[in-house]
């Protein structure tokens, strides 16, 4: 019976996907404004950088080991878009109800704050009024439907054995009315709980019916919904059957400058469609066969070398390759601010910076205050030559970062490398396994980044995003 149930759910899932993706066969390009967050808990640059480095580290720990809970960073002050930092507006329902979502390539479920009774615990952030958090009201939408246990989309979240978890919903049952069980999703410093809905997603020039979305009735430290752009079947790219999607992350200015950039969705069959000119491409790496679903949601890319200046940094090859258990390799993540490297990667990279900048004293006091290292004192020097930082990917695609993407002025006459590592490593440079390198949004600033799902490759080029 278990085998029959699995076959039943799998066939219906494929059938639903076929109907859905073929309904979007006409090529369409949809552009959505993408906004960075500049609401920081302090105007002090040292505190801002400490805040961002701590959040980046917490996010990395979650992506590397989602089942391990860390309490050491629970008291980090947050703001409404701490998780991710770049947000879009999406409309759901009939008539449409617009809401803001954090755009996240590191997770897949799409959810919004839901019902007039929505509760957000520990969400006393600057510029967030707990009594006025925008929520989706299902009763005001004629297209709202609860997802039932027998709906194949329920199995997207709970797997093919979901029918065994629903009372009176076996294959022989004709009276199964039970709804899909509530979902619970944990993020780096927050979580959310709710019910699955089938709703209409209203995009510019395109309406998508029967879209799976989470109606969250309770969240912890997550006052804004998440738009999951990961690789799993419940994500926006998968549900829309996107050929590719791209974004350009406007630079973090650390002020209130109202600037935005674009998130671009390429739907439909795309026959005769031209590829983006000027991009450097590398194939996506195969996702690991790890038991954790979050690893299946990652975008793995084959980073093969890191150069500092003209020096090729020696990094253990075992950390650059993604193993079947999910350990090692590199992922791209819009929700991590500063790029994360395991200590076995970070130490030779940072050590090479120290070696090539030996004429400058280390600012150890600033390192302790910001959580970033190495930091250098450059006072009294009219011109400073910084070594280049280059990521070399399989296939010859080189990402030579602009200086502002990896070196930042964090105090007067002090600069720091904006890459983080974990000081609490377990074993020789290991942090609970998982990807060894996480390419964060700070290093992606002012790049046109493309996720070519049709040809299974990752593309990028320098571009002024604002």
From TrEMBL:
Catalytic residue positions: 104, 333
PANTHER family given in the database record: OS07G0603500 PROTEIN-RELATED (PTHR47967), PEPTIDASE A1 DOMAIN-CONTAINING PROTEIN (PTHR47967:SF36)
Every Peptidase A1 domain range: 86-461
GO cellular component assignments: extracellular region
GO biological process: proteolysis
Single Gene Ontology MF annotation: aspartic-type endopeptidase activity
Family: Belongs to the peptidase A1 family.
CDD domains: pepsin_A_like_plant
Organism: Erythroxylum novogranatense
Keyword annotations from UniProtKB, A to Z: Aspartyl protease, Glycoprotein, Hydrolase, Protease
Superkingdom, taxonomy of origin: Eukaryota
Identification of the protein by name: Peptidase A1 domain-containing protein
